[in-house]
Predict the structure.
Amino acid sequence: MSDRRLDFGEGKGSRTTDRYYRYDVFHTGGGERVTRILKFRASKRGYYVIDGADLLASDLLMTTTFMASAAVHTFLYVYPAPWDSRELRQAITRISGDIIVKRNLLEDPFEFRGIREYQPFDSIRSINWKATARTDDLKVNLNNYTSLKFVQICFDIEDDGILKKEDCVEAAISITAGLCAGFLEQGLLVACYGNGRDMESGQYVSIPPRSGDGHMDLIYRALARIDLEKPVVNFAATFREKLLSSKGEMITCFVSPNSYDDFLGLIREYHESGRDYRWFYPVSGEQTPKLPEELYPNVQFLKV
């Protein structure tokens, strides 16, 4: 007979306790192993540490009880659900198209596209000598194109007002996950920066641009470990230099449910610099936040 208590939330880096109690009865013989698979639905984003397990057992006649405790160190990630809405999907498609149209095209020598006749501006290195000998006319290789494809997602989840906006803050994290997943599916390099504190390290989120499924897992885990009870770093002070000194073909997506003066000042400065950006603004209720008129074309309000 086994009496097991799993403690989610009291381990390292956790904030709250959510005890889950399960009572199982089974018989085992010497050298046997019993495995139980528990199905559940996670209701809240987070990072949960399991740091102990208790085992209760009895003899055959159930007259004596034996108890043992074991220290374990394992953890459970609950990823934020990526925001999925028609407005967000359309925005991802539109931004991806902008990057493709505005990118610097460079020929990739490893991507063969075809053969055409030689032109005076062609490099000698592009001549296909076998095709030239076969046709008795100069022929050159055609290559596909590669480019810089870069989008950075920057989220600000500061919530220092008297009336807390926890639903909008969680929505901002979910929108960030949805944007990262959407752009990675489009084959773009994605970076993710934000002022949320990591439960383990206490540092803010800073993930450099990469691509691939493993990169999305890294982003998911960083977003899952954000501790909303820890004070966030000031977004404008932390990221102003990085944002205003960045160069290259990229588009910045800001995600924030607030328009505090310092953050709004950074957005206006970024806007006046002529850089490409979008601001995804989660809002609850029907009231639309008041912003400077020049920013509205770049703002996408998403109802929570």
Q: What stands out?
A: The CA atoms of residues 5 and 256 lie 39 Å apart. The two ends are 47 Å apart (CA to CA).
